[in-house]
Automatic annotation (TrEMBL), chains A, B:
Subcellular location: Membrane
GO molecular function, one term: calcium-activated cation channel activity
Domain of life (superkingdom): Eukaryota
Name of protein: Putative calcium-dependent channel, 7TM region phosphate
């Protein structure tokens, strides 16, 4: 058992690590050569250009000693930007994401204050542990374990549980209200956007006589006669976007060899045609990749023609635009035909938020996919240890020697042997955990969501469940998830909270260490951006020829909702569970929330470039998971107290989860519609205003080419212009007053990339 | 343990009882004097008048011996009417209700066939029970109990479980599809009805400057400018309708005494003013009730004035009508303002389906009411035995003697003593069970539903849960629900299905008896209509003066969805649970379904008069509960088989509920929207047709007075005409081609009554 001293040492180590990260960051970020790694957001907004002037040295290294003195001054700077400005700068998603940390602080600071002033003295002034023969640490004297069985002091914990629940619910209710207002205000004050007028229609039924485009037009002309404006069909460009990506990769290699050749013109660079340029026939690098680029260009061109001319490449989906926001709001919220599996309408996501590959999945297939993913996720959560154990059993010394006898001499070296024995089994698990978010994302994609934001939200939910079972429960009752499941199935409903509840106080020190390593050091590591830093300098050295290339070499990254939010939720869970049991955990969580708030605020201002703007559509999930944590904490407390011979408190404790769930349902009804539906009054108000201000607006032109597969917008070779023009049909560029947010495009993670020259045209019409 | 012979005797008794009921019915229904009891539906439809001609004797008794010979000929007659005609005759609700019985037959006849040809031989050809020392009946030799532990024969049961599940799902899917189509067809082919154009708006926010009426008009003129037509505010007429009901009751007494006086003019009838005319001052009956009627008439008149003139009696709700069905469909399905708790819109129920008392409950109150009802229902289900046990402990001989010593001599008589000891405790429970549906209905009313159909659906759900826990589980594991709950809380999730599963085969004979008594005899009793028969003749003797009074004395009744459907569901549950375990139960269930189908078809044709038409809105509930029964049966089978040392089959059995739940979700997505939403295409089609056919339709006049509180339509005294005219504002009667369905009004169970003279006017405009 760890004593206060042990925790102090661990804390000191982790504080030092975090401090080291901060110092490294402070030094690195001041070097002009790293400017694009630590301030990409400003470049993307066009408010900062590459540092060019001055001597060669100052171009790369900052020699001004004064700037090093105030090495932590980025912290107050990060906090200075006021919220409305931050919304304009980084979007509502980022600002509301920061509110999750703020919510954590709002919940836990008063709770910690109350717990330390009331509960810690109540626990501390007992001597149960001293009298017992148990091995215990002095930390445990602060916890509920120190209260004797059947003591009346448990009433304190009961009252505190009520107080904490009410406070948490109060904060949650307020936050939900604020976020809902922010969202509505954001949506209302926004400039005209194509998705305000557009509805995504899926599962257009096949018709032998009409093309999809004609069918859509006729259907909406008949059923929304006063409101229908125009529509855009969706092309199946999955193959094309694969080709474009491939070409981009080949082009990168070509650039690399050309740069190599230009630096050392005496030798033609050579490469091999096989795997990663390591195996196969040796050829001239430049020639090989030039011919590859040519081949792919031709293929892209012919694929593009095929898509444009073949009616089969039109998917049974369309983006239908309306004359008014009112018309779009009506169409998105209503059912169109008596068969609820065809002509499905939903709000169109932002153009950049659309996940194009999933637009054409029929209804039956969707439900089957959901079943498959459900089963797959169940097995992933409960049986993921089986393949890892298999790999681990193979990846030992004997296995390696058997598979590759020639490695025997190397493997038998003592240092390498101990390294393999020590690390290899762990690496298999670590690799799995690193790839887990990607696996979950693939599941969500397979499930058929149509926007990137929805994909991320669903992945976050799954990641949270995985963490809850494998990290939280797994650490408390030690054993794989499957063993837990087996245990739970053989235990009564009464005993499950007891089993877990009883182990909780003993795990406090473990979780304190976890918070420090995963939370503190993790957050401090986030600001250092080691991976983007290395990648940028590698690309800068080997690939960058022009300023445009340098812009593309930047990887600002995003908030990563699908991994970040579940991590925060784990801290909410730990905080709420331990608030009554071992309040000593709370300060560590508060430090995490505070630190993370400052760091992520800095990152949002200076680094991240969100891929989409969902106007905080994720808040209902965040709220729901905090409520889950609250209910779990109440059940576990009930289990724990029932072993303490304080059974008379059980009815009072049962009331708590009932009230909490009721509160959740209340909030759901009260606030959730603001995140799912679009009120007609708001739509009508904006429409009326717009009609008054711009009576001659050419809306059709504005919407005409808003929803075109990004791959058609790639302008990296000449033939695309022709093709995209064909597809866009009279692309009228409507100038608006608003400045384009991004004057430098970033490669989209998911579906091809937009390069600057044409992207600017396109983005001009998506303000 | 009951043997085959015992069951045979019980069956014979019950068949004889049922047969006796049928004979009694056959004789009673042929008497002209009972004509209004057994064929009220035809009177209500105006297709039958009172038998007047002929001699006095034949007016009351049927002397034609030939009609007695074919005393069962009502059965084929009931089956003859084709379904479309039945829909026109009795409404879609009744026809779809009959389909529940048909679904039962469709599911269980093939299952029984398969079970008897495959499973019964497999079970029968073992000798486990013979070898064991257990007491068993020869019925048990047909059940799964007869298969030895660890036998490979369990594969048969497993395969059968799959076959039964797939068959049930197949039937359910088909039925869902058919019912959905019927509903859509019914809604589409219907004549113009006010609810097609009308939306119920609740929670109109208070406004200091405008009245509710003005506010509603302005809001919809702004937000639905092209579609808004008119609206009707809702008056708080709860007190008025109470007064009207009271007056009606007093009027009945007045009629009774006047009739008494006219038959015996020598003596003025006397009455007492106190409780039920038994206590208090003795007064002249006619004078007393005449003055009472006058007093109430004045009170009603002044209350009516108060409602009309006091703006506070206008509730913050309104029925808003639109120019087109399309406009109404849009408004009902969309959110109006950014605050989702005000301006709530939903489809208006049929005017006769509206539950007026609940129209003005604010959102917060609704959520609190839901919590209260949840808790109350939980206690009702699990703790209802406590007050009954209390009553039982009081209602014994000693208790009575202590409370009323003067009864001692009577009570001590041996016969009376044994009667009290034997029946009184049972009566408390029986009374509770009789009042249970009313208690559940009160709960649903308190919860705030706005239509009678929704109230009945919710009550049915609660009644089903109550029956599931207290009848099904209560009979299997014997013990009160609370004892069960306690037991389950202390058992592991694995053990619960085992505990129940193991007891199931042993309870087969009990449930067979239950089916015969509750099902067979109950259904046969339903057709006899003993209570309406007695009530009608009592009223006819004491109250009826005019033909109109006689019409009011008829009580056709309704299907009683809130009690009838949960009863059927219990049989589905028993059938599915026992299909694999003891197939001997199936024939009894099939007989029930067949008998009930014929009887209820007869009753629907000849007797029941539905209070509302919800167009089969209850089918999703029916479907969901059959799915629940299926999943329960699968879990219990899993529990049972796991005790039979056939554990290798568990993974296969776990797959079943997963697949079943997935099937349910699939059906929900595929068919449920047809029951919740109104497709725009259908609305548009009907609008277009109507515009073409009747271009000069005065829709405003048609809708103007459709949604007026029924109490304002009562025309039983002169002053009402004035008041209702004031309220109705230019009531334009629009003649339609369709005949009014009811030319004789029936008292509405819930909110006042409509008497014929004005009702006909009103109903003319509600075709």
């Amino acid at each position: 058992m760890a004593t206060l001293g042990d925790i102090g040492v661990a804390a000191a180590i982790n504080i030092l690590t975090a401090f080291a990260f901060f110092v490294a960051f402070a030094i690195l970020r001041l070097q002009p050569v790293n400017d694009r790694v630590y301030f990409p957001k400003w470049y993307l907004k066009g408010l900062r250009a590459s540092p060019l002037g001055g001597a060669l040295v100052t171009k790369f290294v900052n020699l001004d000693y004064r700037s090093y003195v105030r090495f932590l001054n980025w912290m107050p700077a990060a906090l200075q930007m006021p919220e409305p400005e931050l919304v304009a700068h980084a979007g509502l998603d980022s600002v509301v994401y920061l509110r999750i940390y703020l919510t954590g602080l709002k919940i836990f600071v008063p709770i910690a204050f109350l717990a330390f002033s009331v509960m810690v003295p109540v626990n501390w002034t007992n001597s149960t542990l001293k009298k017992s023969n148990l091995v215990y640490s002095n930390l445990d004297e602060l916890s509920i374990s120190n209260v004797p069985l059947g003591s009346h002091r448990f009433w304190t914990h009961l009252v505190m549980a009520y107080a904490f629940t009410f406070w948490t619910c109060y904060v949650l209710n307020r936050e939900y209200e604020i976020v809902a207002t922010m969202r509505l205000h954001f949506l209302a004050s926004e400039q005209r956007r194509p998705d305000q007028f557009t509805v995504l229609v899926r599962n257009v039924p096949p018709d032998p006589d009409e093309t999809v485009s004609q069918l859509v037009e006729h259907f909406f002309l008949v059923n929304h006669p006063d409101h229908y404006l125009t529509h855009q069909v969706v092309y199946n460009a999955n193959k094309l976007s694969k080709l474009v990506n491939e070409k981009k990769k080949v082009q990168n290699w070509l650039d690399y060899y050309q740069l190599k050749f230009s630096r050392n013109p005496s030798r033609r660079p050579l490469t091999k045609t096989g795997f990663l340029g390591l195996l196969g026939k040796r050829v001239d690098g430049i020639d090989h990749y030039t011919s590859e680029v040519d081949r792919l260009s031709k293929e892209i061109s012919s694929e593009r023609d095929k898509i444009t001319n073949n009616p089969k490449s039109i998917m049974p989906s369309a983006f239908v635009s309306f004359k008014t926001r009112w018309g779009a709001a009506v169409c998105a919220q209503t059912q169109q035909t008596r068969n609820p599996t065809i002509w499905l309408t939903q709000w169109a996501p932002e153009p950049r938020d659309v996940y194009w590959d999933n637009l054409a999945i029929p209804y039956v297939s969707l439900t089957i996919r959901r079943l498959i993913v459900f089963v797959a996720f169940f097995f992933l959560t409960f049986f993921f240890m089986i393949p890892i154990a298999l790999v681990q059993s193979l990846a030992n010394i004997e296995g390696i020697e058997r598979a590759a006898p020639f490695l025997k001499t190397i493997v038998e070296v003592k240092f390498i042997k101990s390294f393999i024995q020590g690390f290899l089994p762990g690496i298999a698990l670590k690799l799995f955990l690193i790839f887990l978010p990607s696996i979950l994302m693939i599941m969500s994609k397979f499930e058929g969501f149509t926007s990137i934001s929805a994909l991320e939200r669903r992945s976050a939910t799954r990641y949270y469940i995985f963490q809850f079972i494998n990290v939280f429960l797994g650490s408390i009752i030690t054993g794989t998830a499957f063993q837990q499941l087996d245990k739970f199935l053989h235990q009564s409903a009464n005993d499950i909270p007891i089993t877990i509840g009883v182990s909780i106080p003993m795990k406090a020190t473990f979780f304190i260490t976890y918070i420090m390593v995963d939370g503190w050091a993790g957050v401090a590591g986030e600001i250092l951006r080691l991976k983007p830093l290395i990648m940028y300098h590698l690309k800068n050295t080997f690939l960058v020829k022009t300023e445009k290339d340098r812009e593309e070499a930047m990887d600002p990254g995003t908030l990563g909702f699908n991994t970040g939010e579940p991590q925060i939720q784990l801290y909410f869970l730990l905080g709420l569970v331990y608030a009554v049991v071992s309040p000593i955990l709370l300060p560590f969580i508060i430090v995490f929330f505070g630190l993370a708030y400052v760091v992520y605020r800095h990152q949002i201002i200076n680094v991240y470039n969100q891929e989409y703007e969902s106007a905080a559509a994720f808040w209902p999930d965040v709220h729901g998971r905090i409520i889950t944590a609250l209910v779990v904490s109440q059940l576990l407390l009930m289990g724990l107290i029932s072993t303490k011979e304080a059974a008379q408190s059980t009815p009072l404790l049962i009331t708590l989860p009932v009230l909490t769930i009721w509160f959740h349902l209340f909030c759901k009804g009260r606030y959730e519609p603001a995140f799912k539906k679009n009120p007609l009054q708001e739509a009508m108000r904006k429409d009326t205003l717009e009609r008054a201000r711009e009576p001659n607006l050419n809306l059709k032109g504005f919407l005409q080419s808003a929803y075109i597969h990004p791959v058609f917008k790639v302008a990296d070779d000449s033939d695309s212009d022709g093709a995209s023009e064909e597809l866009e049909q009279e692309p009228v560029v409507v100038p608006t007053k608003r400045q384009s947010r991004r004057n430098t495009p970033v490669p989209s993670k998911y579906s091809g990339s937009i390069s600057s020259s044409q992207a600017e045209d396109v983005l001009m019409i998506q303000p």
